[in-house]
Each structure stands twice: as structure tokens, then as C-alpha cells.
Design goal:
CATH topology of the largest domain: Rossmann fold
Order of helices and strands: EEEHEHEHHHEHEEHEEEHEHHHH
Number of helices: 12
Structural class: alpha/beta
Radius of gyration: 20 Å
Shape: globular
Number of domains: 2
Strand order of the largest sheet: 9-8-7-6-10-11-12
CATH class of the largest domain: Alpha Beta
Bound molecules: nicotinamide-adenine-dinucleotide
């Protein structure tokens, strides 16, 4: 038990709940980090090996992301132990069991994350109703299909360019991870006049200094192929995306891909974090010292959670897009202006902004009376 209480601070976690149902092999954890701004929203991650500590870190990240996005929701995260690629009927039993076990925990709203998708969320809705990230047929706004996070990232780039000496027309960008986030940010930036010079997926990188055709690449991926099957480009290994010379580098794959040992390989002017925690804190500091603008993950990639929150409130897809645009443009400008004026890292400015919003919400809580 000591372990469970060995982390935490004045923000949370509020609750850590372990769920076990041996009859169906169910093992899971819910961390509700902070609910001062409202019930917590955070995804259900399905993986074979996620610890309580990791779940708590992810829940805290959601507290900051939701607060920074100005949403009336707190932060939480759930993990379900198991192989996400297990047979569908077995997965369905686990997801339904997990939802039922947490039925009474109204401070947590289920959402999709790595290893779970909108179909899983439809099962949760069928069991308990308290969920976002649903298929369109049951009231959802399919955020990956419409590219909510990529849309947000394209606006973040547009505002961040106000702090640089180049503009979007002809700007060369590279994207690590050509999945839901990577494909869509590439599509929106290309529509704005930027040129994709390299994209990668887990099997490799494709590079063409004259530009890649994003529509063709998206069509290739839809056929289940790799970006390296694209004919008009040079093929390199997956790690080579880091060395590509470009103006904007966008990580949209895994955590911690840029760290102190490889950050010097980046040959870019701006990093916009599409993935969650793709750049270590030490590497962000090095980028800052080199004058490379880096927009932190929880500011830049909040489009998805804003879309999910709006879905929960019954908003339309077009209203969600308009809100993502408005919130992310305002936040990016505020954070980058503060960072410039106070000579601090954009991450520090972002954390200060989110923290102020959480502290204000916490000042309204009952326990402040004592
Ligand atoms: P996804 O599974 O659709 O795509 C991930 C892509 O990364 C795939 O193309 C995969 O092949 C590629 N990839 C994996 N390992 C790689 C490697 N070593 N090198 C290059 N590419 C690699 O996932 P997604 O929904 O696009 O999410 C990507 C990241 O963004 C994750 O960190 C996720 O947590 C974060 N994120 C997603 C959303 C969203 O709306 N989907 C919102 C916020 C943050």
C-alpha cells in the first residue's frame, strides 16, 4: 500500500481504483487525478504491462491538457491489462466487465486511447452510457476519421509561425508517424501551402525534397501498405526521419522519441508535438537553447479531447472544429507570448497557464473552507 501513496501532491490523485474479476481475467486500474474542473475525461489504455505509476502520470497529463483547453473536465486515465489484439469477443467481455466495475464512479468518463477504439467505446455506452469517442451511429464524432487533432495542430503551426521568420507557403515539414494524427496534420498543412518532404511509419521513412503527395500516401495507407511503398521518394529506415532537413518537425508516433542523445540530429526550426510526451524535458531545454521553437504536446494536440468533450455535450462536428480552432489558436498565442516575454520555455508557460486554471477551480472546492 505504501507504494500507492508514495506519489501524489496537492492536485491528486483523488482516487486509485484496482479492478479484478478473475472469472473473466479482468485486471484494470483507474486513476482519477483531479476533478476540480469537472468529472475526469481520459482514455482507457489497453496493454499487457502498464503500472499504477504510469497510469497516474497519464491521468495528471489529462488534468493539465483538459485545464489548458479550458474544458469543464478534470483528468483521469484507466488501464486495462491485456493484449489489445486478443480475439474480439474476449476483448469485448473485458471492456464490458471493466465498464460495469466502474459503473458507479461518476467522476470518470470513458474515452479511447492506445489499444481501444470507438467500437470499444460503443460497448461501454451499451453497458453504462458514460463515454466519449463513440462511432457516429451512436452519437459520436469520429475524431480520428475527421482529423480533429491534425486540424488543431495545423492551427497551432499557423500561430507559431507568427513567432518565426518564415511563413506557411512553401514551408517544408516532416512527420514521424503517419497514423491518425500524422496523416491529418499533413493533409491540413499541405492544403495551407506547406510541403511535406518526409513522413515515416513503423516500417520506414520516405523522403523527397521536392515534396510528397499526401493524398497518394493516405490512399496507400488505406490499402494497408507502408509509406515506404510510395514510389516517388527515397526510402530510409524509420529512425532517419529525425535527420531530415525541414522547417517544421512533427512527432506523431511514440513517447520519448527525442531525447538528450539524439536531439542534436534534428535539423529544423520548429517542433510541434503531435504525440504525447514525444520530447524529453532535457531535450526540450536543448531545443530552446538552440532557438528552435517547440510547442508542447498538451497545448498542441488537444484537438482530440476538445472534440470528445464537445461530443459529450451533444455538439455538431462543425461546432467542434470551430472550437478547436479558436481554443488552440488562443492558447498557442498566449503560451508563446508569455514564454517570449518571461524568457521561459513554452512548456513552463503552458504548465503555469494550466495550473492557474486548476488552482482557481480548486479554490471553489468545499475543502477550502477548512
Ligand atoms: P496511430 O496508431 O493512428 O498512428 C501511429 C503511427 O505511428 C502509425 O503510423 C505507426 O506506424 C507509427 N509509428 C509507430 N512507431 C513508429 C516509429 N518508431 N517511427 C515512426 N512511426 C512509428 O496513432 P495516433 O492516434 O495517430 O496517435 C499518435 C500519437 O499521438 C500517440 O502518441 C497518441 O497518444 C497521440 N495523440 C493522439 C490523439 C488522437 O486524436 N488520435 C490526440 C492526442 C495525442
Amino acid at each position: 500500500m505504501n507504494d500507492i501513496f508514495s506519489f501524489g501532491d496537492e492536485l491528486g490523485p483523488l482516487k486509485i481504483i484496482h479492478v479484478q474479476e478473475p472469472a473473466i481475467g479482468l485486471k484494470g486500474i483507474l486513476v482519477v487525478d483531479n476533478v476540480a474542473k469537472g468529472p475526469s475525461i481520459g482514455g482507457v489504455r489497453m496493454a499487457a504491462d502498464v503500472t499504477v505509476e504510469e497510469c497516474a502520470r497519464l491521468a495528471r497529463a489529462m488534468t493539465f491538457k483538459n485545464a489548458a483547453a479550458g474544458l469543464p473536465y478534470g483528468g483521469g486515465k484507466a488501464v486495462l491489462m491485456g493484449d489489445p489484439k486478443m480475439p474480439k469477443h474476449e476483448k469485448q467481455i473485458l471492456i464490458r466487465g471493466f465498464a460495469n466495475a466502474l459503473k458507479e464512479v461518476e467522476q470518470y468518463i470513458f474515452a479511447p486511447d492506445m489499444g481501444t477504439d470507438e467500437e470499444c467505446m460503443a460497448w461501454v455506452k451499451d453497458e453504462i452510457g458514460r463515454v466519449v469517442g463513440l462511432p457516429r451511429e451512436v452519437g459520436g464524432i469520429p475524431l480520428d476519421e475527421i482529423g480533429a487533432t491534425g486540424w488543431g495542430l495545423s492551427h497551432v503551426v499557423d500561430v507559431a509561425l507568427e513567432f518565426c521568420d518564415f511563413n506557411i507557403e512553401g514551408t517544408r515539414f516532416a512527420v514521424q508517424g503517419f497514423g491518425a494524427v500524422g496523416k491529418n496534420v499533413s493533409k491540413f498543412l499541405s492544403q495551407d501551402g506547406a510541403i511535406a518532404v518526409a513522413v515515416s511509419d513503423s516500417t520506414g521513412t520516405v523522403y523527397n525534397p521536392d515534396g510528397l503527395d499526401i493524398k497518394k500516401l493516405i490512399a496507400l495507407k488505406a490499402e494497408g501498405k507502408s509509406v515506404t511503398d510510395y514510389p516517388d521518394g527515397e526510402k530510409r529506415d524509420a529512425g532517419a526521419i529525425i535527420d531530415i532537413e525541414c522547417d517544421i518537425w512533427i512527432p506523431a508516433a511514440r513517447p520519448d522519441v527525442i531525447h538528450e542523445d539524439n536531439v542534436h540530429r534534428l535539423n529544423t526550426k520548429m517542433v510541434v508535438e503531435g504525440a504525447n510526451i514525444p520530447v524529453t524535458q532535457g531535450a526540450e531545454k536543448i531545443l530552446h537553447d538552440k532557438g528552435i521553437l517547440c510547442v508542447p504536446d498538451f497545448i498542441a494536440n488537444a484537438g482530440g479531447v476538445i472534440c470528445a468533450a464537445m461530443e459529450y455535450q451533444g455538439a455538431s462536428q462543425s461546432a467542434a472544429f470551430a472550437t478547436i480552432e479558436e481554443k488552440l489558436r488562443r492558447n498557442t498565442r498566449e503560451v508563446l507570448q508569455t514564454a517570449k516575454q518571461e524568457k521561459i520555455l513554452p512548456r513552463e508557460a503552458s504548465l503555469n497557464m494550466a495550473r492557474k486554471r486548476i488552482d482557481r477551480a480548486m479554490s471553489f472546492r468545499r475543502w477550502n473552507l477548512f
